[in-house]
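<context>
A single protein, sequence plus fold
<sample>
Here is the protein in question:
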Amino acid sequence: MSMDNTKLRFFAPCPRGLEGVLEQELHDLGIPTTTKTDGGIGFQAPWSTMYWVNLKSHIASRVLWEVGQASYRSEDDVYRAAYSLPWPDWFTPSQTIKVKVSARRCPLTSLDFITLRIKDAVCDKFMSVRHKRPSVDTHRPNIRLDAFLDESTVTFYLDTSGEPLFKRGHRVLSVEAPLRENLAAGLLRLAGWTSGDVLLDPMCGSGTIPLEAAMMARRIAPGLSRSFAFERLLVHNAQRWGHLREASRLKQLAEVPAAIYASDQDPAAVKIAQRTFQGAGIAIDVRLRQSDVLDLEAPAEQGVLLINPPYGVRLSRPEELDAFYPQLGDWLKQRFSGWRAYIFTGDLRVPKLIGLTPSKRIPLFNGPLECRLYEFLIVSGSMRKTIPTSK
């Protein structure tokens, strides 16, 4: 059956705070009609566009295909709405399933009970049509069903991604509390970095930010090295998918236009970053070294500096931070005039401690943790902060 003659509805969730850059990315991928909500972007497109978004999006966490919607007042209404959908057209009873329910202002008391009712509805539908029911696997299901309930409507989705999209398939090992790939890509977008700009990440950890930058600059599709849940659906068009993958591979650039510099003081992290870059095929694009951040000189007259300090909530004591940030501020002022510096942190005292006035403060979430991306335009000598500003 061809799914490409009709417009289908999809929803792409993303880290909170990146909705704007995800919407722009979808427009750049050729999707004109989008709807922005808290936590993601809805869009209408043919089936093969969903392949393209899974393959090409740096920002989305996954792509959900909306398969049905109904109004409800009770758990029985939700059961009936789920039962009415043609699940056996989309997957087989020999595949395992997992049902995930989320809700906002839902009047029903137990989400666990709703989850159970939806699972029952799907299994009952299979029994009536195929005389066999799928079994549940909550850890590694073949098929993930998502349901979202607001105060009066339930919407059903099939997950087309499988593993979340930030799992690009490159990470060999990781250091403690690594930055998720789609959040790193979002930071680069919010910083206005383009492949023509010199980039420096002086506290790169396992190298997520430089890796995403190199992949963007080279136009390497983030999903090229992995598999997806849509490949397990009965409506999957393997030939079309193969053509799209090949087309995106042919769009890759052989070399990167601008310089990407990365360093970290931890030799173990640098080793992991090096192996990750090699695995992703971009080791020659990143100039990687082991160094303490305060020992580095600016590698160019101007550029973009992006720092996700491994300090604060995760690893360090407040008094160490109180000493570190003023030094970082002096380092920026002395060596990086002409640069745009961005610090991504959950520590809202950073502008005060660093002694610089941010020109932008962008609220973002790293999982449940509220953070800020601060922008500092470093100009020589004139950025000393005289009055405290509120965050």
